[in-house]
């Protein structure tokens, strides 16, 4: 099947499956990509504590606050950008997120080299784990934001049951 025809079919299937309002859309993303609700709320900018507290609230309640509504639209847009890289094949995106990265037998030694010369110290120490750093890169909206989003979602999926 020609690639262009397949891409059109995938886009049509996506359009049919995709809900009309934002609350249902956010729930749809959680379900088809297998994204943990707390992690999804963290993508929207909630603190870990707040995301945990609001994880049982329905989307309509959360989105009544205009700040969260705006952030929900922003995350939904970022997910669309990411999905477009997969030609709107949400199943392929979900499979990519749930792939286990396999180390070669015996493992590969890693070697990190330090830059030569003067290394400028950061004015602050990044807070949190790798997920926190990925969220910050994603929020900066620079060229690395989609890569950070993909890495964040893949990290989320590695601990989540695969769902569609």
Can you walk through the features of this model?
The structure is a single chain. With 164 residues, this protein is mainly alpha-helical. The protein has helices spanning 3-17, 22-33, 37-43, 48-54, 59-62, 66-84, 90-98, 130-139, 145-158. The chain is globular and about 45 Å long. Mean pLDDT is 78; it is low at 160-164.
Taking pLDDT < 50 over at least 5 consecutive residues as the criterion, the unreliable ranges are: 160-164
What Rg, in angstroms, do the CA atoms define? 18 Å
**Whole-number total of structural domains:** 1
Strand content: under 5%
Q: What is the SS-derived class?
A: mainly alpha
Instruction: State the helicity in percent bands.
Output: 55-70%
Keywords:
164 residues; mainly alpha; 9 helices; globular; disordered C terminus
Task: Please specify the SSE layout and strand pairing.
Elements: H1 3-17, H2 22-33, H3 37-43, H4 48-54, H5 59-62, H6 66-84, H7 90-98, H8 130-139, H9 145-158
Helix pairs in contact: 2-6, 3-4, 8-9
């Amino acid at each position: 099947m020609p690639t262009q025809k397949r891409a059109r079919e995938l886009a049509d299937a996506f359009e049919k499956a995709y809900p009309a309002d934002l609350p249902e859309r956010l729930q749809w993303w959680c379900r088809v990509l297998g994204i943990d609700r707390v992690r999804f709320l963290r993508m929207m900018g909630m603190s870990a504590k707040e995301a945990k507290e609001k994880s049982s609230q329905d989307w309509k309640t959360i989105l009544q606050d205009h700040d969260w509504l705006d952030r929900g639209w922003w995350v939904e847009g970022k997910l669309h950008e990411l999905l477009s890289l997969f030609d709107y094949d949400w199943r392929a995106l979900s499979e990519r997120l749930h792939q286990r990265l396999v180390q070669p037998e015996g493992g590969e030694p890693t070697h990190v080299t330090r830059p030569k010369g003067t290394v400028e110290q950061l004015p602050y120490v990044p807070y949190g784990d790798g997920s926190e750093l990925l969220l910050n890169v994603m929020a900066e909206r620079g060229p690395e934001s989609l890569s950070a989003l993909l890495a964040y979602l893949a990290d989320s999926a590695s601990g989540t049951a695969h769902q569609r």
